[in-house]
Amino acid sequence: MTMKIKFLTLSAILILSSVAMQAQIGFGILGGVNFQNINGKNSSGDKLENGLLTGFHAGINVNIPVATNFYFQPGLLFSVKGAKNEFFIPLNKASGDYTTTTRLSYVEMPLNLLYRPQLGNGFLLLGFGPYLAYGISGMETTQFNSSSVERKVKFENSVGLLTALDGNAYYRPFDAGANILFGYEFGMGAFLQLNAQLGLLKINPEYSWISDDQRSYMNTGYGLSLGYRF
Questions:
Q1: What are the residue ranges of helices labelled H in the chain?
Q2: How far apart are CA 160 and CA 117, in angstroms?
Q3: What pLDDT is recorded for position 116?
Q4: How do the pLDDT tens digits run along the chain, 230 residues long?
Q5: What is the pLDDT of residue 20?
Q6: Contact 105, 113 (CB under 8 A)
Q7: Burial (CB count <10 Å: 0-12, 13-18, 19+), residue 107
Q8: φ, ψ for residue 12, nearest 5 deg
Q9: Are 76 and 59 in contact (CB under 8 A)?
Q10: How far is the C-alpha of 36 from the C-alpha of 115, rounded, in Å?
């Protein structure tokens, strides 16, 4: 992670903590599992046939009251996304089943509007809103039988031919989309929620030497979070 990303992450944490104290509302910590995919189209315009990747997320959020039972809930997360792709190449004796696993790590900021009415001894949680994310690291691994090849992920909006020959995998650094969440916060502060995301920006870069590239990769997925609100 570069010094710039570290500085922005630390600044966001300090701002969220300050807002929480000023609003006299404790901030929340949360973490959990992601079930992610990369959907869209390949270079020929056909639908991608990827499988789910299990990742994780962890971070903080704060509830800022805007009306009775309604809150603005910004957060800051570290989130691992990506996908798996299994395919068969029947060309020669070395052909067979291949599995490519793509893992992309993001610093992510969800910006949700939360409906939080009291229900029993706790609170019902219903939220939606946009998210913004910035890619900081990643790895793409292709495995065949007992052999595997790893390619480091670099984040670029466009890639030239000479750059592509360096053997790395390329994705765009910025991602954005829509969040929804549903859950329950218990009276003692612990909460459980189901999250879902739909990416709305392409995460694949433009390749300068390809004139009719129809690729359109987008992050999608859902996850389960456990947390505690102080």
A1: 3-22, 161-164
A2: 52
A3: 96
A4: 565 555 555 555 555 555 545 555 778 999 999 999 999 998 788 898 889 999 999 999 999 999 999 999 999 999 999 999 876 555 555 555 778 899 999 999 999 999 999 999 999 999 999 999 999 999 999 887 778 889 999 999 988 877 777 889 999 999 999 999 999 999 899 999 999 999 999 999 998 887 788 889 999 999 999 999 98
A5: 46
A6: no
A7: buried
A8: -65, -40
A9: yes
A10: 26
Please report the DSSP string for 5-25 in residue order: HHHHHHHHHHHHHHHHHHTT-
Instruction: Give CA separation, 174 vs 104, 164, 169, 218, 229, in Å.
Output: 12, 19, 16, 11, 29
Q: Is the pTM of this model over 0.85?
A: no
Look at the block and give the residue holding tokens 């992920």: 153
What the chain holds in terms of domains, given with CATH numbers, is: 3-229 (2.40.160.20)
Helix (H, G, I), strand (E, B) or coil at 161: helix
β-bridge mates for residue 97, sequence order = 88
Q: Which of 153, 216, 165, 226 is nearest to 191 (CA)?
A: 226
Residues in the chain: 230
Name the residue type at position 144: F
Strands 147-155 and 169-171: parallel
d(CA 131, CA 110): 4
- The DSSP call for residue 102 is E
Asked whether the CA dihedral 90, 95, 97, 101 is positive or negative, the reply is: negative
Torsion, CA 46, CA 47, CA 49, CA 55, rounded to 10: 130
Give strand ranges (E) for 51-121: 53-61, 64-67, 70-89, 96-115, 118-119
Look up residue 168 and give its two tokens: 């790395």
Q: Which amino acid is at 5?
A: I
